[in-house]
From TrEMBL:
<dbReference type="InterPro" id="IPR006549">
    <property type="entry name" value="HAD-SF_hydro_IIIA"/>
</dbReference>
<keyword id="KW-0479">Metal-binding</keyword>
<feature type="binding site">
    <location>
        <position position="14"/>
    </location>
    <ligand>
        <name>Mg(2+)</name>
    </ligand>
</feature>
<dbReference type="InterPro" id="IPR036412">
    <property type="entry name" value="HAD-like_sf"/>
</dbReference>
<dbReference type="GO" id="GO:0006281">
    <property type="term" value="P:DNA repair"/>
</dbReference>
<feature type="active site" description="Nucleophile">
    <location>
        <position position="12"/>
    </location>
</feature>
<dbReference type="InterPro" id="IPR023198">
    <property type="entry name" value="PGP-like_dom2"/>
</dbReference>
<protein>
    <recommendedName>
        <fullName>Phosphoglycolate phosphatase</fullName>
        <ecNumber>3.1.3.18</ecNumber>
    </recommendedName>
</protein>
<keyword id="KW-0378">Hydrolase</keyword>
<dbReference type="InterPro" id="IPR023214">
    <property type="entry name" value="HAD_sf"/>
</dbReference>
<dbReference type="GO" id="GO:0005975">
    <property type="term" value="P:carbohydrate metabolic process"/>
</dbReference>
<dbReference type="Pfam" id="PF13419">
    <property type="entry name" value="HAD_2"/>
</dbReference>
<dbReference type="InterPro" id="IPR037512">
    <property type="entry name" value="PGPase_prok"/>
</dbReference>
<comment type="function">
    <text>Specifically catalyzes the dephosphorylation of 2-phosphoglycolate. Is involved in the dissimilation of the intracellular 2-phosphoglycolate formed during the DNA repair of 3'-phosphoglycolate ends, a major class of DNA lesions induced by oxidative stress.</text>
</comment>
<keyword id="KW-0119">Carbohydrate metabolism</keyword>
<dbReference type="InterPro" id="IPR006439">
    <property type="entry name" value="HAD-SF_hydro_IA"/>
</dbReference>
<keyword id="KW-0460">Magnesium</keyword>
Length: 228
């Protein structure tokens, strides 16, 4: 099955294009320890990411995917400030693009598709990450987790893209690794392409019933009939 009418492709970032967990885990661990909380591991953080930095830090302080309702909100706010500082100081040196990401993005861009980035990551970190990996110029729009009032799975960002580029939902494809990405696509009425290797809280991404499931992002080129 191929998609014939796609004009605009929206990509998630963390867990889809970029394995950012090593840097996120270091910053999260530094944060909780600086506040006297127990250390957290990279393996734990890998299950906690995907819903934005506020939720990640709440989970790290709670040491659970469900944030402790008794967690002090002032401590949580201070932890978020410290996390941002630690994460920025780390310089994203441990993060790396997944296999075939650059070649796939360039092939899609060269074939005339409009590419956008829709991430729940705080906006201020995104430009440096994209520039560091040489892919910033491939995107016509970059939307962070705080660009709009609502983040994925809310379709607000995708609806904004549809309106800006004057395309129908049937002409847009959302590419991601988590149920938030697939739900955002469904809520916007657009197609979804899911990757199995990212961060989905330990759940198979196929459970979210995306239109396409792949182990490698390069499989997009076949689905979109892009010559390689």
């Amino acid at each position: 099955m191929a998609l014939q009418d796609i004009q605009l492709i929206a990509f998630d970032l963390d867990g889809t294009l970029l394995d950012s967990v090593p840097d996120l885990a270091v910053a999260a661990d530094q944060t909780v320890q600086s506040l006297g909380f127990p250390s957290v591991s990279e393996e734990e953080v890998r299950d906690w990411v995907g819903n934005g930095a506020d939720i990640l830090i709440g989970r790290a302080l709670s040491r659970n995917i469900v944030v402790d309702q008794a967690l002090d909100t002032d401590v949580w706010k201070e932890a978020r400030i410290r996390f941002d500082d630690f994460y920025q100081q780390g310089g994203h040196k441990l993060s790396h693009l997944y296999a075939n990401v650059t070649d796939t993005l360039k092939a899609l861009h060269g074939s005339g598709f409009k590419l956008a980035l829709v991430t729940n990551k705080p906006s201020k970190f995104v430009p440096d990450v994209l520039a560091q990996h040489g892919i910033a110029d491939l995107f016509v729009d970059v939307i962070g987790g705080d660009t709009f009032e609502q983040k994925k799975p809310d379709p607000m960002a995708l609806n904004w893209l549809l309106n800006k580029h004057q395309v129908t939902p049937e002409q847009m494809l959302m590419v991601g690794d988590s149920k938030n990405d697939i739900l955002a696509a469904k809520n916007a009425g657009c197609h979804s392409f899911a990757l199995t290797y990212g961060y989905n809280h330990g759940e198979p991404i196929s459970d979210s019933a995306p239109d396409f499931v792949a182990d490698n992002i390069a499989e997009m080129l076949d689905v979109l009939a892009v010559s390689q």
